[in-house]
Design a protein that fits this description.
Length: 527
């Protein structure tokens, strides 16, 4: 990308970046007086978000930036400590989440400093967070683009004016999460200072593996081992709360180089987060038996609904979004899976309640929610009508007329909705979906003026009609397709919902829908 193109992209991103992340925690933007931590290391961050000023005779380093709106606080802190803001030469960050890097672009613009970032997170800086494995699809977590001048690797050093920082790659929280270590000489003693990127786990992250980060579990494990082996005297971190800064220091306290010496506190913090990781990993792995008590994950779906999956009549092979999602879930849980095509919703519910299936897939309906628990919508299905090619009806709004006869299948979403909402048209209910030839005959002979189906079924019917049928424009109801479980199985429902949420955020669901080349279907929004 050219410098001009990058600058334009950065400007557009800055204009569109949402301020939501800064509003999640008031302490992230709450001012806090700048102060000396130890030697040439100073705090110029907010009440909770760290920004470290590391000074040298040849210029200064800023590590972490908070948000764009906290940049003035950083500048004020630097200058209040007696340093020139324009002398900042290097900008670093512990990881590329907005609360630590959203101010980088503005700081680089103001100081002209070089931005250096651990290689796996450098891409996030240059795409505004869009490629983040967890938050990339959430517009509210984006931040202004910034060009990276140097890509760091594990154990690389950053040297400025006699100051040397060593970058330690500690992935897990992000792919490029980094701790920085330096030695500070004070009163004839060397202090080993570590600005640690702690291995915390964000909500929605599955440490057993994620679509965009399959090695996340191994990375967390390696990070905890590496951090426990790291020699530390002075313990600092990305957030003030992580190293208990406010317990150790109050504004106005006299300078004490030993104030933040806390090797035991560092070790305890790492081990505490490691336990959280191990507990979550064990829970995720144990979910295999919970989801699949027989050792096989069994999921029932509507065999005639292409939005769920398609069944090859010759081979019995099942392909489609549900097949892709269930396959991925079973893979993560380390169990085989079985897909059970059902003729209708009643059969799906029966399979779940009888124990033949562990979960099912169906459209959300209030009445159905009294019989099963809905555990996570993955797709939204649009619904319309199929009519004869020469029908005077053009849109779904045209169909609700006194002279119009509409067909629908009993118990399906279309019949439930139309039975409650048609004002004038007459609804004829069929016990099963008419085969393609029978559907064409019903419409050609005038026994029905329109037949209600989801848009993908209509597309299939039109494609196979030899030009005799067409679809009406529009959708009279948009219906969420969801995984369901037996009523009261809260743990199983929670496990399914966590997977569905991650599949949406990682792009797995969209990829499954795209592969199926479906018409009238979109990824369901989060609930």
């Amino acid at each position: 990308m050219s410098n001009r193109a990058f600058a334009l992209a950065a400007a557009l991103t800055a204009a569109l970046a949402a301020p939501a992340p800064a509003q999640q925690n008031a302490d992230w933007t709450r001012p806090f007086p700048a102060f000396k931590l130890i030697g040439n290391v100073y705090w110029v961050g907010t009440y909770d978000l760290s920004t470290y000023l590391i000074t040298s005779g040849d210029g200064h380093i800023l590590l972490n930036t908070g948000f764009a709106e906290t940049v003035p606080q950083i500048r004020q802190g630097v200058e209040k400590l007696g340093f020139k803001f324009g002398d900042v030469k290097v900008l670093l960050a512990t990881h590329a989440h907005g609360d630590h890097v959203a101010g980088l672009a503005e700081l680089k613009r103001l100081t002209g400093a070089r931005v250096m970032m651990m290689e796996p997170d450098a891409a996030l800086l240059e795409d505004g967070g869009r490629s983040d494995f967890r938050f990339g699809d959430e517009a509210g977590t984006r931040f202004p683009l910034v060009a990276v001048d140097r890509r760091l690797r594990d154990h690389d050093t950053v040297v400025l004016g006699g100051v040397t920082l060593t970058a330690h790659h500690h992935p897990g929280h992000t792919k490029g999460a980094t701790s920085f270590a330096l030695t500070v000489r004070e009163n004839g003693r060397d202090y080993r200072v570590v600005i640690a990127n702690m291995g915390s786990i964000n909500p929605g992250v599955m440490v057993s593996g994620m679509t965009k980060y399959p090695t996340i579990g191994d990375d967390y494990a390696r990070t905890f081992a590496a951090q426990k082996a790291l020699p530390v005297d002075v313990f600092l971190a990305s957030h003030a709360a992580q190293f208990r800064m406010h317990e150790k220091y109050k504004p106005g306290d006299a300078y004490d180089p030993n104030r933040f010496v806390d090797p035991m506190g560092y070790r305890a913090a790492v081990e505490r987060l490691e336990k959280v990781y191990l507990d979550q990993l064990a829970k995720e792995r144990s979910a295999g038996p919970a989801l699949a008590p027989t050792g096989t994950l069994r999921v029932a779906f509507l065999g005639s609904n292409p939005v769920h999956a398609r069944v090859n009549p010759g081979t019995g092979t099942i392909t489609g979004p549900v097949a892709d999602l269930v396959s991925e879930l079973a893979k993560r849980r380390g169990v085989p899976f079985k897909l059970i095509p059902a003729p209708d919703v009643r059969a799906v519910i029966s399979a779940i309640n009888s124990g033949e299936a562990d979960a099912g897939v169906m459209a959300y309906e209030v009445a159905r929610a009294r019989e099963v628990d809905f555990a996570g919508g993955f797709a939204v299905m649009f619904n319309s009508y199929v009519v004869r090619l020469d029908s005077p009806l053009k849109s779904v709004e045209d169909a609700d007329r006194a002279t119009v006869r509409i067909g629908a299948v009993r118990g399906q979403t279309q019949e439930i909705f139309l039975s409650a909402n048609l004002k004038q048209a007459k609804l004829r209910i069929y016990e099963a979906q008419p085969p393609p030839d029978e559907l064409r005959r019903l419409l050609a002979k005038g026994e029905m003026d329109a037949f209600a189906m989801n848009q993908q079924r209509i597309e299939d019917a039109v494609r196979g009609s030899g030009g005799e049928l067409r679809a009406l424009t529009g959708s009279y109801v948009d219906v969420e397709q969801s995984f369901v479980v037996k009523k009261g199985e809260e743990a199983r429902a929670a496990e399914l919902k966590a997977f569905v949420d991650e599949a949406r955020e990682s792009g797995l669901t969209k990829a499954a829908l795209d592969r199926a080349k479906l018409v009238g279907v979109a990824v369901a929004p989060p609930r």
